[in-house]
Structures are given as structure tokens and as C-alpha cells.
Design goal:
- The protein is an alpha/beta fold and 260 residues long.
- It folds into two domains: 4-68; 101-258, Rossmann fold (3-Layer(aba) Sandwich), CATH 3.40.50.2000.
- It has helices spanning 4-14, 36-39, 122-125, 129-141, 170-177, 189-196, 211-214, 236-243, 247-258; strands at 21-24, 57-60, 70-72, 79-81, 108-111, 145-149, 164-166, 182-186, 201-206, 220-223.
- The strands form three sheets. A six-stranded parallel sheet has the order 7-6-5-8-9-10, sandwiched between helices.
- A hairpin with a 6-residue loop joins strand 3 and strand 4.
- The longest helix is centred in the middle third of the chain and has 13 residues, at 129-141.
Amino acid sequence: MGAGDEIIATGLAEAVPAGKRVAFGDGRRIIWGPHCKMIFQNNPRIAPPGSEGAPDLHWIEHYKGKRAYNSLSADRRRWIWNYKFKVKPGRFYFRDEDCPIKKGARPIVVIEPNVEWQKEVATNKAWGLEKYSEVANAMRDLGCDVFQFRHKNACDRVLAELVCDNELPFRLAIAALSTASLYIGPEGGMHHAAAAVGVPAVVIFGGFIPPSVMGYDFHANMSAGGEACGNIKPCEHCRAAMDSITPEAVIFQALNILNP
């Protein structure tokens, strides 16, 4: 969780011409956040800090406080979305031994009910554990193996009665995710990861962030429509948007993906 911006960065790197390495920074200094080393591991298209003098660099301003997809409002109460930006799938460079789960005969569905609960905006992005439980039950009844990865943001929000927990480092969890038939969860790091490993998804956007900016075209992106408010503090608009998305609608989208 919380690695979405770094996964987006790998998508930006994939679009750079061959023979160039991306330097994420301000044009003078390569700036990496705490997740970059893990996400960028083995990636030949991204230059690490210390490479500032290399002749093959292509600079992109993408680091904390400098994102192309949004900016902070003057009163610092909401994000203003850049509707000219469209996220592109990223890429992980795995080794064969990175994946701890192999594909079986039954479809694998990964469900993530959690958001970054430590952030004030979390309630605007949360769909609700009971709804996710209903979807997980339906997927299990349809013959799917349902998984949820255990992590520090899960707290007590774990579908314990339905899910096989795997306490894996994030990178290995994404390698395992690559074997799934479907991901279901909120907009965030895991949905960006699913896109990066080519896994179809049903993504619960609600009303906070626009799918036209941060959604992938091969995912089913669930929103209430209308303006994405970007409110950082809990708001009724986002709650109503989430309430408008029913488990039945999510299950319908999941079935369309699993049985095209």
C-alpha cells in the first residue's frame, strides 16, 4: 500500500525512447521516495540517485510534491485533478523466483478492502468491509479461490473467514498478484500494481478521484459519475458516491471479466 506513485512512475518510464533512462527529479537531483528502490528494482529504464551526470538521462518531474495528475487547492482542502493526464500501465521487472504462488485450475481473485487508513482522506476512498465480504462470498460460491494479502494497513479489516492470508513483502505480493484472474479493490497502489502486471480489475473509485485520469481502460472502473471532488477531509459527497455502488454491480462487472 502507498506505492501507487512509484508504480505510475514505471509507466512513465516505459514511454521514454529506447536508449534513455528516466531520472525522476528536478533536473539537477534525482529524487526517490521510500518505495522507489523496491518498485524500481531490476528496472533498466530508471536511473538511480547518483546517476545525475550520466549522458543518457531523460528527466521527468515526478516526486513528492510534484505530480502531473493533480495539484493542491489554494486552501489546501482538496486536490484539483489534471484531466489532461491519463495514467499508463507500469511495469515490474521480476525474477522467476519472485513469485510464491502458481496458477491453478480455479480462477484466483484477489480482494483488497483496505485503503491507507492513516490518512485523513481514507474514508472518502473506503467502500466498506461488509460489501467486500458479500463480493468475496459470491466469488467463492462461483468456484474462485479468493485471496487477500495481509499488510500493515489491514488492521482488523481482514476477510478472515474467506481469505487465505499471505504476509509477503509488497514486491512479492505483486508477483503473486500477477497469477490472478481478477483484482477487486479501491483506487490505489494495488490497482496500479494490477495494471502493471496485466491483471483485469474491478476498481472502486467512488467520487473522490476521476477514473478518466487514474483509471486503466482494461479495468472496470466503478464511480458515481459527475465531478470527482478531491476533498481531503471526509465528505458526504464521497460517502453518497460509495453508497451508490452496490455489491451486485461489482459482482456483475467481475462476472463479465471472468466469463467474457
